[in-house]
Write a structure and sequence with these properties.
54% strand; 7% helix; Porin; 275 residues; globular; twelve-stranded antiparallel β-barrel
Length: 275
């Protein structure tokens, strides 16, 4: 993949710094992983939009801090007013998704469809354990995240603008059970072609530890609609996680959407190695 975007180069620079720091600190943990995510839905349009993402991830944990960087490859087929990570919007970009040649300008019609592939939006996140009570099995985490606008806006793979998110998450354990949830706020970047509002987010879930190697759970995600003409996001995800070796962990999940701001359904899997 060729990166010709300053924010992409900065994000990959962070990736290198995290890896270097992890090697230098014997008390830290570095995690590398890969996955695949597939979603399908109509998003209130007359056609189905399919989105496949293959993310490569790097995580670094030290003390009360953890960091994560995602670099995804993405393929999208469907309506060009459906933007991955955002949903259905009014997209006035005259360069539409997958119409044969690069940068071919076509009329901006709502029914326009096509396919495109390329680098997705790189995201970098930092989480701080603000409060931990091991005796009560209770904690509060604060997370800041930047989504760099590295995905092509002309190909309909993203908005081309950066987004900024701040989350507050809590968890409480009850034996093998853990309940968790949180709230957040995202400042969505707007372009001259796609106008977006800042949005409030919330999530809640429940996890159950089956044994020392495996667990399962489910969580619900909500996000306000990103524009006056779009829809709120409401999704329920169930997952199963299994540690199949001392340093290896795999996870599989299924997702069901309940509004036109979400895909109709989705599946995914990931594997992570820690050292």
């Amino acid at each position: 993949m060729k990166l010709n975007n300053t924010s992409a180069l900065c994000a990959l620079g962070v990736l290198g710094l995290l890896a270097q720091s992890a090697r230098a600190d014997d008390n830290s943990t570095i995690k590398v992983g890969a996955g695949i995510d597939y979603t399908s839905g109509k998003y209130g349009t007359s056609t189905t939009t399919d989105i496949t993402q293959v993310p490569l991830t790097l995580g670094y944990e030290t003390g009360d801090w953890s960091f994560k960087l995602d670099v995804p490859y993405i393929h999208v087929t469907g309506a060009d007013n459906v933007i991955p990570g955002v949903g259905p919007v009014v997209n006035n970009n005259p360069k539409k998704r997958g119409h044969g040649k690069k940068n071919v300008v076509v009329a901006p019609t709502p029914a326009s469809t096509g396919s495109a592939s390329g680098l997705g939006d790189i995201t970098a996140a930092a989480t701080y354990e603000a409060y931990t009570n091991k005796a009560a099995n209770f904690g509060i985490d604060l997370t800041g995240k930047v989504k760099f606008g590295t995905a092509s806006a002309d190909d309909g793979l993203g908005t081309g603008k950066n987004d900024y998110t701040f989350n507050v998450d809590l968890y409480k354990g009850f034996g093998a059970w853990t309940v968790f949830g949180g709230v957040g706020y995202t400042w969505l970047g707007s372009s001259q072609y796609i106008r977006l509002n800042d949005v409030f987010t919330a999530n809640a879930g429940l996890a159950y530890k089956l044994d020392s190697k495996s667990s399962l759970g489910a969580y619900y995600d909500y996000r306000e609609k990103a524009a006056s003409t779009s829809f709120a996001r409401n999704e329920l995800t169930g997952y199963y996680s299994y540690k199949f070796a001392s340093a290896w962990k795999a996870q599989a999940y299924v997702t069901k959407g309940f509004t036109d701001g979400s895909p109709d359904w989705g599946v995914g899997a990931s594997v992570v190695y820690a050292f």
